[in-house]
Amino acid sequence: MSGNLHVFDTPEVLARGLADAFVEHAGRAISARGSFNVALAGGTTPKAAYALLAQSPRRDGVQWDRVQVFFGDERCVPPDDADSNYRMACETFLNAVPVPKANIHRMRGEDDPPQAADDYASLLIALLGEQPRLDLIMLGMGPDGHTASLFPGTDPRTDEERLVRAVWVEKMKTHRITLTPAVINAAYAVIIATEGAGKAAMLRTVRDGAHNPVEYPVQIVDPAGGALEWYVDRAAASQPE
Ligand code: 6PG
Question: What is the pTM for the complete model shown?
Answer without folding.
Answer: 0.97
